[in-house]
Amino acid sequence: MPAGTMERVLIIGTGLIGASTGLALRSAGFAGRIDGWDVSSLERTAAAQMGAIDAAAASAEEALAAASKADVIVLAVPVLAIKDWMQRLAPVVGSGQLITDVGSTKLEITELGRSLFSAADTAAFLPGHPMAGKESGGAMLAEARLFNGAMWLFTPSTSESSPMEKEWRDWVGFFGARTLDMDAARHDELCAWVSHLPQMLSTALAALLEDKFGDAPEIGAIGARALRETTRLGASPYSMWRDVAMTNTGPIADTLFALEQRLAHVRENLRTPELRDEFALANRFRQRR
């Protein structure tokens, strides 16, 4: 495990990603204290019972008090709540501490971090995004190996790296994750294509089928694997994706428009050789991955 000075961690948001982070820390050998807070008493109780956190704060005020003593604070809540917590934390944290997050969009978070945590006497801030998860959330689905083999992206808000940031990066590596630094705007553009567009596509397809067929038993009987795979992400709750859509609206809208054009192209060429070309391009993409 990494050798360093990290002894206390606070996880704000003890759902799937937050609780999995706590479990991953323990699995990787972290012997310090892990506190947690979640607006849902069920989530924070579940996280404590499974050992993802040692103790749960009873209120947001208690969480802020714990933050003042923590070496690392992990913000594992939706993006808009991350931004809110960043502003709450700024007055109570200081030099030597690190705030990091796991938000699915990064530009707004990174820009806010740069404005709040750039002075010498402030905590360090490291925006992060583990490319891991499940279509459903909640602490009960958390697991220590969730990040094993996953890419954990960082979009640093400053060019300087604090000792605690370096140590946190080491721990992420001990979770089994690979890491990659990139520009925040580039992150949001790429994630719009490879993560947010598939979600919106699956959601739209599942909603369309529900509108068209409802609970018709024949659909389940004949849809089989193809239907399950293409609509799997349609099980994701709106609460998980609302903030993504609100903070990455432009790039997501661009991808949806491009897909609309591509689908129109397919529709117009159902009886021409260009449909074969479309399949060839799709096959090539899949073969490379």
From TrEMBL:
Q: Which GO terms describe its biological process?
A: tyrosine biosynthetic process
Annotated membrane-spanning segments are none
> Gene3D superfamilies this protein is in?
6-phosphogluconate dehydrogenase C-terminal like domain (1.10.3660.10), NAD(P)-binding Rossmann-like Domain (3.40.50.720)
- The keyword Amino-acid biosynthesis is assigned to this record: no
User: Which Gene Ontology molecular function entries are recorded, alphabetically?
Assistant: NAD+ binding; prephenate dehydrogenase (NAD+) activity; prephenate dehydrogenase (NADP+) activity
Give the domain of life. Bacteria
Keyword terms: Oxidoreductase
Q: Which residues form the Prephenate/arogenate dehydrogenase domain?
A: 7-289
- Pfam families, sorted: PDH_C, PDH_N
Protein name in UniProt? Prephenate dehydrogenase/arogenate dehydrogenase family protein
Give the originating organism: Edaphobacter paludis
